[in-house]
Write a structure and sequence with these properties.
By secondary structure, the chain is α+β, with helices and mostly antiparallel strands. About 30% of the residues lie in helices and about 35% in strands.
Amino acid sequence: MTIGLGAALLFSLQGVVLAGGAHSAAAGPVSTHPLAVNEVLLEVQATGTATAPADQAIFTVSVAGTGADMDAANAALEAQVAALTQRAGRLGVAPGDIAPPDFRTMGFAGNTTDTMAAAAIEAAGDVDSEEASAQANRTLAVTVRRLDRLDQVRQAITTGGAVTIGSEAYRLDDDDSARRQARRRAIVQARATAEDLADAMGMRLGRLVRASERAAPEGDMMQAYRAMLSMMAGATSSDREVEVDVPMSFDFALVPR
C-alpha cells in the first residue's frame, strides 16, 4: 500500500546589500547561511520512499479464559497463554515475541490489559442454580521472524481453541539499506523540484547550502496509520513488502541566469 506524502515547498528571498557588498543575516533558516549578492535562498522539503521485502510478520491474538469466577477465569487465561507460547516456541517464536501490542510501533488498536471486566453469566439450563461463569480476555501481539513459518505458527496458536487471530502486518528488522535508498530518492526529487522552481523564477540552480534529515512531526503518526490500514486490510503473501519514508530538507542558492 502506498500513501504519497508529496513534497512541500518553502522559499524565502534575501537581497539587502550593505556597504562593502556584505549581506545582513536574515531571521529564520537564512541566518546561518550568508548568501552572496543577488542569490536567493530556496528551501525544498522532500520525502524519499523505498520498499524492501519484509523479514518479520506481526499479528494479534485474542485469548480467552472462562471459569466459575474471575480467579478461575484468570487461571484459565494464563494456562491458554502458556500453552500457545509453548506451541509457538516449538516453531522458533521466542517468549519475548509474544507480548502486549506496542501502539507506538504497530499502529492498531487492541486491549493490552491483563483482563477485561467480565460479567457474571447465569448458567444455561438451570435458572435457579445461581451457578455463574466469568470470562477473562487478553490481547497479545505475536512477532514471527521466520516468514516461511508464519502459517505454521498461526495454526499452532489456534490449536486448542479460545484464541482468535487478527490480520498480520509486515515490517523490517533492519531498514538501513531501505533508508539509504529513500534518502537518494529524496535528493533526486528535491533537486528536480528546485530546478523547476528556479526556471519558473527566471533563475538557475546554484550551490547546495544545506541538507538535513529531519522527521516531520506527523511522520510517526503516518507510519502508524499505514500499519493500521495494513492490519485492517489483511496483508497477503503478495504484499510482503515494507515501505520506508525518509523526510529531508534542502537549502539551495538560486542565482541569476
